């Protein structure tokens, strides 16, 4: 008589789990727990930095991917346009050159609000005898007052607020009108780059930083409909969205002091708080003057940092920040907290973990440059030679994030422009002479063409 074969009642997954448990038990039994404890003691001091780094890099990658997936808005929408240009003691050569780039795109009107002492520029504009251009002499009490004067004179649906030292690239005016097909769009930002970047290392550094903003940061927030600051160098608004809040732009007070600079961030948040979207149009390109000297570069960054603190702390205090999409919330909070997070990380690494030997310091510097190079990949793809100034860029980022931002926070309610003065033509390091290198300076029209 044949006995039947025994049939296992265990399922295949159970057999697999039993084998896995057996292997795990064998592996753990073979471990030398003294070595494991020693390894953990070695790496555990770095754990807080590793967690913080993972969060920071994760947020950067999230924003980077969203930005590079964002597409420009393309429609057939057209509207009437008023260009408003506040101009305080601008170098007349710079102003007239920029004016030609605006005229070439045929806006319905251009209103240039000059200071009462800018008689040379006024005469040169009048000599053009162009009926679409209206120069006015106005006693400037900060840029906001000049913007208010120009906006109240504007007659058309779309306001294009442009700095007096900014040149438009071809088709900017056509491209900025396209997003306004959506009635909820209240403001459109443009892609800014630095005019004649090769004339100064600090212009190249500024161009690098500006490129990262407009390639890796702003498009993600624009796609969500909440860019937190539409740059005032060329900012485009729906006139009907601006007029109801114009009084709040002109008469902003922070801790009892009237605000002078920071008009672009203030107007952006007023429009956002009114329920409109603020978007980015990557195909609308403009070139702007930036400081040629280190001193002027630092002054500009101090002013911008003060403006950011006042603007974003106001947005938090009024509750505006909590009503915008996550990507904008986290970006604003990162901007505010950068001195704290970077400062604590650097303090911890330098005073607790850094090996002060040639090898240790060299490794730390290489790691710093590698990280900054990875974050700068979007810019380096366009300007690969700038890899040579990567150490200068890393220095500038640390300078801005720590001493400049800390000083700006401590003095955030100190009002002033810093780079423009009543007794000086042109901004610090931003006049026509500053554009001259070893050869004759190119004209703005040549660059735009």
TrEMBL record:
- Please verify whether the record's keywords include Glycosyltransferase: yes
Main localization category:
membrane
One function term, GO molecular function aspect: hyaluronan synthase activity
Cellular location(s): Cell membrane
Which domain of life, per UniProt?
Bacteria
Biological process (GO) annotations?
extracellular matrix assembly; hyaluronan biosynthetic process
Q: Which UniProt keywords apply?
A: Cell membrane, Glycosyltransferase, Membrane, Transferase, Transmembrane, Transmembrane helix
InterPro entries membership:
Nucleotide-diphossugar_trans
What stretches pass through the bilayer?
43-62, 330-350, 356-375, 387-410
What is the designated name of this protein? Hyaluronan synthase
């Amino acid at each position: 008589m044949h006995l039947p074969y025994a049939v296992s009642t265990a399922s295949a997954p159970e057999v697999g789990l039993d084998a896995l448990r057996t292997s795990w038990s064998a592996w753990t039994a073979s471990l030398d727990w003294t070595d494991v404890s020693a390894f953990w003691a070695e790496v555990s001091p770095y754990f807080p930095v590793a967690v913080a780094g993972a969060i920071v890099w994760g947020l950067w990658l999230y924003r980077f991917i969203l930005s590079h997936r964002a597409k420009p808005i393309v429609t057939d929408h057209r509207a009437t346009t008023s260009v408003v240009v506040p101009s305080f003691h601008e170098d007349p050569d710079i102003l007239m050159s920029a004016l030609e780039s605006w005229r070439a795109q045929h806006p319905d009107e251009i209103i240039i609000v000059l200071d009462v002492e800018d008689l040379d520029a006024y005469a040169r504009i009048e000599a053009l005898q162009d009926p679409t251009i209206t120069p006015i002499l106005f006693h400037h009490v900060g840029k906001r007052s000049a913007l208010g004067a120009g906006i109240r004179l504007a007659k058309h649906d779309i306001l294009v607020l442009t700095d007096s030292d900014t040149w438009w690239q071809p088709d900017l005016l056509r491209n900025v009108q396209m997003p306004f097909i959506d009635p909820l769009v209240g403001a459109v930002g443009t892609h800014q780059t630095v005019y004649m970047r090769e004339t100064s290392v600090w212009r190249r550094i500024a161009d690098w930083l500006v490129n990262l903003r407009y390639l890796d940061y702003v498009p993600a927030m624009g796609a969500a409909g909440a860019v937190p600051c539409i740059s005032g160098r060329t900012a485009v608004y729906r006139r009907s969205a601006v007029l109801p809040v114009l009084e709040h732009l002109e008469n902003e007070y922070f801790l009892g002091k009237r605000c002078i600079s920071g008009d672009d961030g203030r107007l952006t948040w007023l429009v956002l708080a009114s329920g409109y979207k603020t978007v980015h149009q990557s195909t609308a390109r403009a070139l702007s003057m930036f400081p040629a000297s280190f001193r002027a570069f630092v002054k500009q960054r101090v002013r911008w940092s003060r403006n950011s603190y006042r603007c974003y702390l106001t947005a938090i205090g009024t509750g505006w920040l909590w009503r915008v999409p996550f990507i904008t919330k986290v970006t604003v909070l990162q901007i505010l907290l950068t001195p704290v997070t970077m400062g604590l990380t650097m303090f911890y690494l330098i005073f607790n973990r850094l090996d002060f030997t040639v090898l240790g310091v060299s490794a730390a510097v290489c790691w710093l440059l590698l990280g900054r190079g990875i974050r700068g990949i979007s810019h380096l793809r366009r300007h690969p030679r700038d890899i040579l100034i990567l150490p200068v860029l890393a220095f500038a980022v640390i300078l801005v994030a720590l001493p400049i931002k800390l000083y700006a926070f401590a003095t955030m309610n100190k009002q002033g422009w810093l780079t423009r003065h009543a007794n000086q033509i042109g901004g610090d390091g931003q006049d026509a002479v500053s554009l001259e290198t070893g050869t004759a300076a190119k004209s703005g029209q040549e660059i735009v063409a």
